[in-house]
């Protein structure tokens, strides 16, 4: 495959190059094989086709961006950004309970089918997923979206997908800040990246079981806060959406204010003690992260700029290159 010159968008040009080079050297040697405009010759319309698939799906279902972003996190944190989460079969990552609620697979499959027609055997599922998540942030349903950023491509698809690798590599919503710091550090990501990437919770939704242990309600409707860091009025609203005995399939928007818009409302919610998860609320409670939360809550442009940098690092975690992987013909199975 060709290696073309690196082209960056205005403003992010030099900074993105610096971030990418430093991250590749320190945490992901294979990342050095990634490049901007990787498909410039082999499949020029690749990014357009992925973006079109995301836009089309989002116009029908506003929850798609949140699903795609979550799908990327669950992929990159397990085996690296190699589309291993897309593989189907007994004992694969998708079979672990932590992943059974993932969505957005049909969007990736749709983009892959189109690309296989125009550029067969060329664009990896790992790149499609990374690009789709990138586009999901920018494309928001009937509202202003998030930042438009450029990420390098050239990832190859992994050959290994094991359910046993999921739990040790996924953050639980009950994690303490120290546990999250240790986890992010193991992926080559900093405390700053932790706070910025937590902002992904400005879109998406969660099942009631992910936060129901923060409060309880008796048969008379009386509310008792177990986690005092949670706003009582917000907790009362959550109990109405997640009543005792309700179906386990019920979901609640991560952001109660601007559910389908990628913005800095997440940090404003934290200041109002309306972080949905315990792992959100700890960012405000701990002095190591509180100041950054306050800054981001009042500076959306600053959040967008920081997001571009941290997202670039996220999508470069543990990438496969050369004989480490393949270009799958179908995202759900290896070429075998």
Automatic annotation (TrEMBL):
EC number: 1.11.1.7
A GO molecular function held by the record: metal ion binding
Co-factor binding comment: Binds 2 calcium ions per subunit. Binds 1 heme b (iron(II)-protoporphyrin IX) group per subunit.
Listed GO CC annotations: extracellular region
Top EC class of this enzyme: oxidoreductase
Site (Transition state stabilizer): 70
InterPro entries cross-referenced by the UniProt entry: Haem_peroxidase, Haem_peroxidase_sf, Peroxidase_pln, Peroxidases_heam-ligand_BS, Secretory_peroxidase
Compartment annotation: Secreted
Annotated function: Removal of H(2)O(2), oxidation of toxic reductants, biosynthesis and degradation of lignin, suberization, auxin catabolism, response to environmental stresses such as wounding, pathogen attack and oxidative stress. These functions might be dependent on each isozyme/isoform in each plant tissue.
Protein known as: Peroxidase
Organism listed in the record: Liquidambar formosana (Formosan gum)
């Amino acid at each position: 495959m060709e290696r073309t010159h690196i082209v960056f968008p205005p403003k992010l040009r030099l900074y993105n190059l610096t971030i990418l080079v430093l991250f590749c050297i320190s945490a992901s040697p294979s990342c050095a094989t990634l490049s901007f405009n990787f498909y410039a010759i082999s499949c020029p319309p690749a990014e357009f086709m992925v973006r079109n698939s995301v836009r089309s799906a989002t116009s029908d279902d506003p929850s798609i961006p949140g699903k795609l972003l979550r799908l990327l996190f669950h992929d990159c944190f397990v085996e690296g950004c190699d589309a291993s989460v897309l593989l189907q079969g007994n004992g694969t990552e998708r079979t672990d309970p932590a992943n059974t609620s993932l969505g957005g697979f049909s969007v990736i499959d749709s983009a892959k089918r189109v690309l296989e027609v125009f550029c067969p055997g060329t664009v990896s599922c790992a790149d499609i997923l990374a690009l789709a998540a990138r586009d999901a942030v920018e494309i928001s349903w009937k509202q202003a979206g998030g930042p438009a950023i450029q990420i390098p491509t050239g990832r190859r698809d992994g050959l290994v997908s094991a359910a046993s690798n999921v739990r040790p590599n996924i953050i639980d919503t009950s994690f303490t800040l120290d546990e999250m710091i240790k986890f992010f550090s193991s992926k080559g990501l900093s405390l700053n990246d932790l706070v910025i990437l937590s902002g992904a919770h400005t879109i998406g939704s969660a099942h009631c079981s992910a936060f129901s242990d923060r409060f309880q309600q008796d048969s008379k409707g009386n509310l008792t806060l177990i986690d005092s860091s949670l706003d009582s009025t917000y907790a009362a609203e959550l109990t109405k959406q997640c009543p005792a005995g309700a179906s386990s399939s019920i979901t609640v928007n991560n952001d109660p204010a601007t559910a389908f818009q990628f913005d800095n409302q997440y940090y404003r919610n934290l200041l109002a003690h309306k972080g949905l998860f315990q792992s959100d609320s700890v960012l405000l409670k701990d002095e190591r992260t509180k100041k950054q939360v306050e800054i981001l809550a009042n500076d959306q442009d600053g959040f967008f700029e920081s997001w571009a940098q941290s997202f670039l690092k996220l999508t470069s975690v543990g990438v496969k290159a050369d004989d480490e992987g393949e270009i799958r013909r179908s995202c759900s199975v290896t070429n075998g």
